[in-house]
Amino acid sequence: MRWGGDSWPTRKSCRTPTGSGGPQSKQSLRLWLKLLSCTLIVEKRLRGRLDADFDTTLPRFDVLAALERHPRGLKMSALSEFLMVSNGNVTGVVSRLIEDGLITRTVDRSDRRYASVRLTRKGRDSFAKMAAANERWMESMFSDLSAGQAEELMRLLARLRGSIEAHPI
Fold first, then answer.
1. Is residue 45 within 8 Å of 137, Cβ to Cβ?
2. 82 phi-psi bin (left φ>0, alpha ψ -120 to 50, beta other)
3. Are 11 and 97 contacting, i.e. CB atoms less than 8 angstroms apart?
4. Rounded to whole angstroms, how far apart are CA atoms 125 and 111?
5. Which of 28, 40, 105, 106 has its CA 20 to 30 A from that of 165?
6. Cβ of 63: how many Cβ atoms within 10 Å?
7. What is the pLDDT of residues 103-125, one digit of tens each?
8. Does residue 91 have a pLDDT over 50?
9. What is the bridge-based pairing of β-strands 103-107 and 74-75?
10. Pair type for strands 74-75 and 115-119
11. Is 59 exposed, middle or buried (0-12, 13-18, 19+ CB in 10 A)?
12. Other Cβ atoms closer than 10 A to 75
């Protein structure tokens, strides 16, 4: 997902292996870089606002958001999979959220290797405030797009994702 970030794409890493070098490959590279730059800007602003307004991090927000979508809780492995990060990354974030009283961990009685986590009332309340602020921030950043343009962009991005999934490299 987006928790890492110490590898920045280079011209070499962005080259296509078949490297036709034609107009379509150049356009694909420009599209990739435009998508990446938008993502990085939004992520940087989101990280800054979460820190300034809520004294929290994006990984913590992501864990709370995932658990809000699963009120019965998630096993740690399912949470990692849902967030597309390693179990090790999730474990540290979850431990700190437990210490802060935002989530609880329950160990499976039949197999103690498995634990599930879910939001506490405090966690639900905290996340609700963060989610409302996040929605306002996104609305502000995307405010120059009309509703129709936003719908069209979402449609095109869904099509792009389908293309990406259909053509692994």
1. yes
2. alpha
3. no
4. 31
5. 40
6. 28
7. 999 998 888 788 899 999 999 99
8. yes
9. unpaired
10. antiparallel
11. buried
12. 14
